[in-house]
């Protein structure tokens, strides 16, 4: 039965102009685990909770449910595209086939930029904030750079060496993160209640922020305090679409991938908010906690003791490693997919699948080398490298999601239902929620604190544009032809006959 399904999936892929290059081994839980690991609430909350306390106070956690609803709507829209075009390369493929190859290339390049910087951002977190506390040492620039570099190499070794083992490691990490976050939430609530340490006033506190101007939207270059609180959800609830970039390795991707996306967002959203509430109730003095580099660990240590706090840090290390692992897996697949179409710099090298390992090994080597270069540049030239990395890693997915939703709005009539994942009567309200949310989210990045993040985007876009011009000059418009691009409706019709 599994062989029949794999054969059907491979035949469906052929309708889009490609031959099967990878073995289809990714099942339902593995697909969900990829999406959940990229979101990684342990990573996102541990990393950004302190910033939210400083910018918005504890009251900022109430932006989380709004962000989750917005991102859940986006996940449904993207899931609809992923179900109809189940091809590795996700937004690059969707935009190229439904809009035009030039715009598809641009979106593919922006996606690549995001994946290249976000893997450095999450791994840098381990080296700069988690391991120094866990192992009790003082981190400086050199040590942080070296530890991050080693983590990147370890993830690359797994991704390039074996997809099967990468998924096993990720599945284990996700299972541990789910169980650990549930257990920590329950323990925090129970122990804090028994010890009478709950402060419900914290849930409505602005911390050290003044009441005047708190609810302001800000001006052209400044976002109001409550608006900045949305960055907690905007940074954390991203990457769920990574499941779509393993579409050609997933069994029945039209059904499995979309469900993995929205289930990962929903699970992350509900569990993440319960954990935020529990931590905030037990936070004590939020103004003092905001000054800590590891506020989550401080609350756990104060409430549950040093042993549990140490276990939390170990859980965070595992979650961040898995998050970086999935990001790297996603980035190498995108590099491979664009190279397969002969439109990525150095494509002749990166389009190959290793016959020994069954992975895009050369694309993995390229990707990790680039990540190391980005790490070195940010470490050398940015005084606040971590914030710059987080800024770019929050801005770029918002741009990608906005472009993808706009594409769906414009082309949804050209996407016939496939009977496996359809929005049906919910399509218009889901689209409305996703559009409102994305417009609001993008408005946050007018804040001057994101200047360096915008600069990174600008530099990378200029590099990409220069390559695109060179590609068109040397090979002409045929360089951007997509395999079987002109017959996407026919691909759906033929798929239904298989």
TrEMBL record:
Bilayer-crossing regions: 29-49, 61-82, 102-122, 142-161, 173-194, 214-240, 261-284, 304-330, 361-381, 387-409, 454-473
Domain of life, per lineage: Bacteria
Bilayer topology: Multi-pass membrane protein
Entry keyword annotation includes Transmembrane helix: yes
Pfam families: AA_permease_2 (PF13520)
Subcellular location: Membrane
Major localization listed first in the record, in broad terms: membrane
Annotated keywords: Membrane, Transmembrane, Transmembrane helix, Transport
Protein name: Amino acid transporter
């Amino acid at each position: 039965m599994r062989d029949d399904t794999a054969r059907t999936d491979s035949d469906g892929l052929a309708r889009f102009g490609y031959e099967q290059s990878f073995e289809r081994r990714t099942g339902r839980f593995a697909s969900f685990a990829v999406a959940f690991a990229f979101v990684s609430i342990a990573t996102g909350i541990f990393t950004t909770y302190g910033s939210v306390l400083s910018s918005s106070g504890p009251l900022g956690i109430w932006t989380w449910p709004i962000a989750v609803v917005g991102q859940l709507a986006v996940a449904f829209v993207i899931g609809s595209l992923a179900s109809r075009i189940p091809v590795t390369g996700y937004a690059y493929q969707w935009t190229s086939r439904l809009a035009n190859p030039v715009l598809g290339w641009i979106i593919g390049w922006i996606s690549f930029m995001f994946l290249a910087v976000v893997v450095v951002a999450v791994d840098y977190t381990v080296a700069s904030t988690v391991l120094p506390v866990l192992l009790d040492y003082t981190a400086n620039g050199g040590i942080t750079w070296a530890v991050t570099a080693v983590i990147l190499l370890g993830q690359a070794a797994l991704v390039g060496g074996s997809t099967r083992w990468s998924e096993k490691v990720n599945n284990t990490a996700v299972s541990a993160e789910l169980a650990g976050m549930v257990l920590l939430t329950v323990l925090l609530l129970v122990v804090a209640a028994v010890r009478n340490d709950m402060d419900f006033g914290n849930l409505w506190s602005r911390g050290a922020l003044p009441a005047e101007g708190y609810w302001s939207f800000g001006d052209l270059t400044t976002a109001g305090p409550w608006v900045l609180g949305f960055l907690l959800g905007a940074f954390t609830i991203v990457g769920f679409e990574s499941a779509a970039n393993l579409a050609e390795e997933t069994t029945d991707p039209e059904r499995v991938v979309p469900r993995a996306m929205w289930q990962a967002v929903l699970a992350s959203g509900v569990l993440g908010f319960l954990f935020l509430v529990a931590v905030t109730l037990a936070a004590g003095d939020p103004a003092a906690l905001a000054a800590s580099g590891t506020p989550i660990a401080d609350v756990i240590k104060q409430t549950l003791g040093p042993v549990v706090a140490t276990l939390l840090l170990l859980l965070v290390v595992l979650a961040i490693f898995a998050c970086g692992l999935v990001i790297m897996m996603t980035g190498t697949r995108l590099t491979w997919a664009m190279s397969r179409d002969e439109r990525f710099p150095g494509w002749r090298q990166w389009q190959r699948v290793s016959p020994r390992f069954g992975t895009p090994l050369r694309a993995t080597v390229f990707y990790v080398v680039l990540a190391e270069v980005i790490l070195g540049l940010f470490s050398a030239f940015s005084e606040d490298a971590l914030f710059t990395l987080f800024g770019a890693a929050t801005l770029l997915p918002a741009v990608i999601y906005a472009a993808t939703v706009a594409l769906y709005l414009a082309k949804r009539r050209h996407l016939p239902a496939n009977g496996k994942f359809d929005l049906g009567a919910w399509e218009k309200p889901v689209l409305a929620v996703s559009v409102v949310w994305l417009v609001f989210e993008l408005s946050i990045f007018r804040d001057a604190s994101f200047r360096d993040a915008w600069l990174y985007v600008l530099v990378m876009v200029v590099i990409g544009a220069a390559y695109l011009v060179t590609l068109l000059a040397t090979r002409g418009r045929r360089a951007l032809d997509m395999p079987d691009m002109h017959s996407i409706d026919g691909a759906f019709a033929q798929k239904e006959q298989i």
